[in-house]
Amino acid sequence: MERLNGKVALITGSASGLGRVAAELFAREGAKVVVADVIDGGDAVRAIGAAGGIATYVHCDVTNEDSVTAAVAHAVDTHGSLDVIYNNAGVMLSDDDNPVTTPLETYERTMDINVKGVLLGCRAAIPVMQRQGHGSIVNVASFVAHMGAATPQVAYTASKGAVLAMTREIAVIYARQGIRANALCPGPVMTPLLAKFLSDDAKRERRLVHIPMGRFGAPEEIAQGALFLASDESSWMTGQSLVIDGGITAAYVTPEG
Ligand code: NAD
User: Fold this and answer.
1) How many A from CA of 255 to the centre of ligand 1?
2) Which of 145, 167, 171, 246 fits 238 for a cystine, CB–CB 3.0-4.6 Å?
């Protein structure tokens, strides 16, 4: 039994990284997927089609309200509904550091994409979901919404805390209207985003020390959490944070000390 049978899912930032892996998994589970990204998503759409799934690409910049509204309209016009919005697009900029040295432009760009982008995704999707009487919103935060990171990235951390708080409030507002909203909080997974930030062995090792399981996550391990939150299997779950992090947030001291 496919877990997203008949559902339409729009995933922002799904031309690459975690979003792309989720797009492929959602399609395998029966969803019609809208790949929405600032970069070309043709490859992702072709891969899904080759595996027997259904997907379309729409150019979408999550910082631009018209662009996000058009992406949601594309989902409804092309596939007939919008059952799931997975607000996954996000950035971690390489000069994001401590509060004293992080350039304000870096802070502003991070908040624009990671927080306003999620707000705009919800703003566009909610009226459609209200008309349908159902919908699942999955917003990507991070484990750093719960913990301070030793490798400073203060703008990113602030942005993910905001996503978590906003998700809880959205969940409460719309709980009686059949719309659920949950935050997915991944630990470090080696996608292009993290590879750029943890650019040398010393930084990578510094991060690995804090992971009880002693390894970075795999994109599929995050996509499985998104699938659960997107599907009706999580039908009595809203306003929550699903942390998938190899044990990071559970640890005081790791086996390596
Ligand atoms: P990635 O850089 O590999 O992919 C991000 C995707 O978002 C790209 O396809 C990019 O083109 C797209 N994007 C960027 N700006 C956009 C915009 N303005 N509009 C639309 N799309 C845009 O990153 P990833 O590692 O796959 O991260 C996906 C999400 O998961 C992000 O929100 C990130 O913060 C979060 N996350 C990642 C990790 C990790 O370790 N990789 C950990 C915790 C949370």
Assistant:
1) 30
2) 171
